[in-house]
Amino acid sequence: MAETINSIASALWPLLIFAALLLFRRPLLRIVRSAESREWTLEVGGQKLSMKQLSDQQNLVLADLQKQVDRLGKAIEDPAARAVETGEDLADAAARTGTPYSVLWVDDSPENNALIIEQLQNHGVRVDLARTTAEGLRLFGQRGYGAVLSNMNRTEDSTEVVDAGLRLMRAVRQSTSDIPFVIYCNATASSRYQADALAEGATAITASPTVVTEHLRALGLLD
After folding, report:
1. Which residues pair with 130 in a beta bridge?
2. 139-179: per-residue pLDDT in tens?
3. Is the pTM for the entire model greater than 0.70?
4. Where are the chain's structural domains?
5. 123 SS3 class
């Protein structure tokens, strides 16, 4: 009897698997199509990213690293070309804020910074995110920070503000001249606003994720 039951069970397994495939064929097809188009979502640095977004960020970092390696060769010959010249001064400035292991990052697309945010969080750094200048200034007034990071072009109250990063920096500088302020934006904005940003007190303005992480290391926020 037991042998008969086992034989029947063995014969039924293929039918059960076939039935399951028929029953779940639509969800399975969606999973396969999602994988093919790399639409899986992962949480990185508290942000939900598609596989494509994550891949794009990783490719950007790798491409930028190659550029920085090329520049490093020039910097060895020309010290003035170094990306970060005042690491000790930056770390001192961060320490003077009283909360060196915290960062305010203002960007209306924080998912673009997910890899760097996760690095900071993995090093025990508190990262407060704000999507608007107003929200960023509210947080800045409520908490102390070791550094402020910002993009340049933001949508504020449904209006595009091309120099939002500069406006935020000016407001912060009215409160303190010590806190490191890094503007991380695209290459066009970096080139357009570089002179003004540095003249008005930005610690750095760059389109390079490598340069951003170099400054964060100089602040003692990353190893």
Report:
1. 106
2. 999 998 999 999 999 999 999 999 999 999 999 999 999 99
3. no
4. 83-218
5. coil
